[in-house]
UniProtKB/TrEMBL annotation:
Subcellular location: Periplasm
SUPFAM superfamilies (alphabetical): Periplasmic binding protein-like II (SSF53850)
GO biological-process terms attached to the record: thiamine transport
Species this chain originates from: Rhodococcus wratislaviensis
Keyword annotations of the record: Periplasm, Signal, Transport
Protein name listed in UniProt: Iron ABC transporter permease
GO molecular function ontology, one term from the record: thiamine pyrophosphate binding
NCBIfam families tied to this protein: PRK15046.1 (NF011620)
PANTHER family reported for this sequence: THIAMINE-BINDING PERIPLASMIC PROTEIN, THIAMINE-BINDING PERIPLASMIC PROTEIN-RELATED
Key word Transport present: yes
Highest taxon, organism lineage: Bacteria
GO cellular component: outer membrane-bounded periplasmic space
């Protein structure tokens, strides 16, 4: 199997560019980019059995389905002292030139930062906050994954990420950072549900093999390994019901999870990103 990894938005851009000579069979990305791919006609119904996945979490037309549940997080180098706990902490002078977050509109995790702040502060409040944060921000990044080693080696003190990717980096690469979820003024910590979602690519040159891969990834056997081996959370209701405690579940203890309407998000994404760029001068 050939695997190509890229940022969430870049995956869809690549899929679009390859339409004259399709290369991909299965597409995996984060919302709202999987919805964007579908709106551009880049996905086709897979026909696989998705009955174990809750109806609210998958496409009614069968164009895409989540494969691993995941959530927005932030990471901090242990050298950050005092350790950041709140959104306001990130505005401190101690983080000047030491914070970077992936770019909204390009990266799924970066887009989630903008959406979560809109949810917590309203659209204008989110833009005001991100404009203030810009004084500490290193600059744009189309890939969230590339920020992890920078935090681990101390080049950055804080970056955004997601629970599955960050826990995997700690387990597999020995990365030196801690996960946290910034708290609001009242102490409430909130994150965004950010599942990995897969779909069958239009014109897939090996569509049958692609369907088989999708079926395998959604199988009960595979999904039972998600928490311990992939450090994500299963999307199957039957597996969730019998799952024991896991590293991702422990990371999310005490954190409220917000699940956006991703089709609504997509409708306003371009205007939201344009407003973000204007507010931050990026």
């Amino acid at each position: 199997m050939n695997l190509v990894e890229a940022g969430s938005g870049e995956v869809v851009s690549r899929l679009e560019k390859e339409q004259s000579n399709p290369q991909a069979d299965v597409v995996v990305t984060l919302p709202p980019f999987i919805q964007k791919a579908d709106s551009q006609g880049l996905l086709v119904p897979s026909g696989i059995d998705t009955s174990a996945v809750p109806a609210a979490e998958k496409d009614a037309a069968g164009h895409y389905v989540p494969v691993v549940d995941n959530y927005l997080s932030f990471i901090a180098n242990p050298a950050a002292s005092p350790t950041p706990r709140t959104w306001d902490d990130l505005l401190s002078d101690q983080f000047k030139g030491k914070i970077q977050y992936s770019t909204p509109g390009q990266a799924g995790d970066g887009t989630a930062v903008l959406l979560l702040l809109q949810h917590l502060k309203g659209k204008d409040g989110a833009l005001d906050y991100l404009a203030d944060l810009q004084a500490n921000n290193v600059g744009p990044s189309s890939s969230t994954g590339k920020l992890q080693p920078k935090v681990s080696n101390g080049e950055l003190l804080v970056a955004n990420g997601d629970v599955q990717m960050n826990l995997t980096s700690i387990a597999d690469d020995g990365s030196k950072f801690d996960l946290f979820f910034p708290a609001a003024a009242d102490g409430t910590r909130t994150t965004v549900a950010l599942p990995y979602v897969m779909g069958l690519a239009k014109g897939a040159p090996r569509s049958e093999q692609g369907k088989q891969l999708m079926e395998f990834l959604l199988s009960e056997e595979s999904q039972k390994t998600v928490a311990d081996e992939a450090l994500g959370m299963s999307v199957r209701e039957d597996v969730r019901a019998t799952a024991g405690e896991s590293a991702p579940a422990r990371a999310l203890q005490g954190v409220q999870v917000w699940s956006p309407n991703w089709n609504d998000v997509l409708t306003e994404l371009d205007s939201d990103v344009a407003a973000y760029q204007k507010a931050t001068g990026s």
